[in-house]
Amino acid sequence: MAGSERQISDSFFENVFAVVRLIPYGRVTSYGAIAGYLGSRGSARMVGWAMNAAHSAVNDIPAHRVVNRNGLLTGKNHFGSPLIMQQLLESEGIEVANDQVTRFEQLFWDPTMEIQF
DNA sequence: GGTGTGACCAGCT
DNA sequence: AAGCTGGCCACAC
Q: A27-36 pLDDT, tens per residue?
């Protein structure tokens, strides 16, 4: 069936993965931004839930580039070790202080603004 | 098949 | 000003 809207995948989950994979190197985004891009602001929780499945996903999901609205590394505990997420971010040149991304607004990558159909 | 929870966000008290 | 509840959708028991 020809969908009028460009749906990347059949599942909300894979939609999240697609957006996260599109996050450029050295950039970060928030759960709410991804959820809002998909059309549901309140589905922000689902984005985090999808990240949980990202661990099982075969594809490399840069989940460390996804932080909460405050730029805080809320999901650091789900990387196996709470230090991995910060190290990955620092490895990309992103400064992290106190489990928080510095210059978050500068590094913030909004899919709604950057991705254009 | 209903209930609860979850890496969130925003509004109300 | 700060704390809490509601809301959203999907998965586990």
A: 999 999 998 8
Residues of A from 7 to 36 whose C-beta is within 7 A of strand B: which are they?
A: 30-32
Domain A3-107 in CATH 3.90.550.10: no
* DSSP state letters, A45-103: HHHHHHHHHHTT-SS---GGGEE-TTSB-GGGGGSSSTTHHHHHHHHTT--EETTEETT
Q: A44: which nucleotide lies closest, measuring CA to C1'?
A: B8
* Span CA (A4) to C1' (C4), Å: 41
Asked whether residue A15's C-beta has any atom of DNA/RNA strand C within 7 A, the reply is no
Terminal C-alpha separation, chain A: 19
pTM: 0.85
